[in-house]
Amino acid sequence: MTRAEELRANLAAVRDRIACAAADAGRPADDVALVVVTKYFPASDVRLLAGLGVTDVGENRHQEAEAKAAECADLGLHWHFIGGLQSNKAAAVARYADVVESVDRTSLVPRLARGAADAGRVVDVLLQVSLDPPGRDHRAGADPATLAPLADEVARTPELRLRGLMAVAPLDDDPALAFARLAGIRADFLARHPDATVLSAGMSGDLEAAITVGATHVRIGSAVLGTRPAVQ
């Protein structure tokens, strides 16, 4: 089997999972967008994916993302930065990423705005919210209690467009329970920002649970691309 055939088969399986989960939730399949996460995989895979109809690509690491976006600039893809964002890299990320999904603190906002302004573009922003249970340290994402001021800061920044929320289910928690918490957080968020309807949640192992609670985007890596290659 060629690499293109492998990716085609994997994409078909993932798209079928998305369609089935959406149907079970009473939603149309095209209500859920697929973001393929290409971390550690080569630009040649990105080209094959684009040829198979993939339009949205996610990356976790700035240096890799920047190089890959430049190499694949002719493909017209929509690039999502989904990794933890260092303050000193935020402006550079905003120069090539169409969507920054991992905004979890207000200090990132002016840096992202500067990078977007330098590139003459408006960058879509998702706020990453922690789904850790109450009483546990928030390891990734903003504490839900801090979302309101963070959202307001993004919303008042003309170089950025507040689009919604992103979340990752904790590894040591039941995804269904974690995403149930997310549904409540999102309801409160939408009451204040009704146009910010994007919900990026769900990965290869838990996309069904995320779609059940309203995910509009799922971020899939290994189920499409296979086991990640060793980092050189």
Number of β-strand runs: 8
N-end to C-end Cα span: 25 Å
The run of helices and strands is HEHEHEHEHEHEHEHEH
The residue-averaged pLDDT reads: 95
Class from helix and strand fractions: alpha/beta
Measured by DSSP, the beta-strand proportion falls in: 15-25%
Q: List the total number of helices.
A: 9
Biggest sheet record: 8 strands, parallel
Write down the overall geometry. globular
Over the alpha carbons, how many angstroms does the gyration radius reach? 17 Å
Helix content: 40-55%
- Poorly predicted sequence stretches spanning 5 or more consecutive residues: none
**What's the arrangement of strands in the largest beta sheet?**
7-6-5-4-3-2-1-8
Write a structural description.
With 232 residues, the chain is of the alpha/beta class. It contains nine helices and eight strands. Strands 7-6-5-4-3-2-1-8 form an eight-stranded parallel sheet. The longest helix has 22 residues, at 3-24. It is globular. The mean pLDDT is 95.
Concise summary:
The chain is α/β, with parallel strands linked by helices and 232 residues long. The chain has nine helices and eight strands.
Top keywords for this entry?
41% helix; alpha/beta; eight-stranded parallel sheet; 232 residues
Could you give the topology of this structure?
Layout: H1 3-24, E1 33-37, H2 43-51, E2 56-59, H3 62-71, E3 78-81, H4 90-94, E4 99-103, H5 108-119, E5 123-128, H6 147-155, E6 160-166, H7 175-192, E7 198-200, H8 207-212, E8 217-220, H9 222-225
Parallel strand pairs: 1-2, 1-8, 2-3, 3-4, 4-5, 5-6, 6-7
